Amino acid sequence: MTVTGVPLEEKYRGDAARLLARAFDGDPTMCAAIPDPDRRHRVHTAMFSLLISTVGAFGVVETTPGLGAVAIWTGPGHRPGFAASVRAMRFLPDLAMSMRPSDLGALASLTRGSWGREKALVRGPHWTLAVLGVEPSKQRFGLGAVLVRAGLTRADCDGHPVFTETSTEENQEFYRKFGFDIVEYVPAQDAPLNVPIWRMLYTPQV
């Protein structure tokens, strides 16, 4: 049976946030920003709950059958509005309670830096693969690839490029297999938290 990506149902948003928290437990940037694993897990869960709820109102959140992987996309024509703001307000208290002021400052700085570089590197409308995570016990079975292909098919149909970034050598090699090119590499010594960054762009096949 062919596995395909499907829209994430609202009733599974909490499960999806917890899946992403597990998937990103060893993310180099988050490990550097929040070294304590228990606190990092709480921050991750609250952060992904907020992101899924917000993007769900204006972007694309997809999973595989059985909730093995989750991808969060934003793209051309998708902008946060009133509905997204209302949804976000429900999760802000949990996020604030799980974070220390130093956590908030570090994450805000990283986010501003990423958004700023994305705007500089990609002119005009484009898709962004903001998050891709696979349940740790289900990694290496191609579930992440299913969701990447689904997003790139959308990009090919509407003719817009796709931006993403990663902080691991393994992930940048994974994305290159799908046609992403490195548009900016920031070595560890020049990057926030001493974690390297690969910023990548996919050109639609039209």
What would the keywords be for this entry?
7 helices, globular, alpha+beta
Describe this protein's structure:
The protein has 206 residues and is an alpha+beta fold. A seven-stranded mixed beta sheet has the order 1-2-3-4-5-7-6, with helices on both faces. Strand 2 and strand 3 form a beta hairpin. The chain is globular, with a radius of gyration of 16 Å. About 5% of the residues have low confidence.
The biggest sheet amounts to: 7 strands, mixed
Query: What oligomeric state best describes the polypeptide chains here?
Result: single chain
Q: Kindly state the percentage of residues in helix.
A: 40-55%
List low-pLDDT spans.
Answer: 80-89
Number of beta strands: 7
Layout of strands and helices, then pairs:
Layout: E1 6-7, H1 13-23, H2 28-33, H3 37-55, E2 60-63, E3 69-74, H4 82-98, H5 101-121, E4 127-134, H6 143-158, E5 162-166, H7 169-176, E6 180-186, E7 197-202
Parallel strand pairs: 4-5
Antiparallel strand pairs: 1-2, 2-3, 3-4, 5-7, 6-7
What's the quick description here?
The protein has 206 residues and is of the alpha+beta class. 48% of the residues lie in helices and 18% in strands. The relative contact order is 0.16.
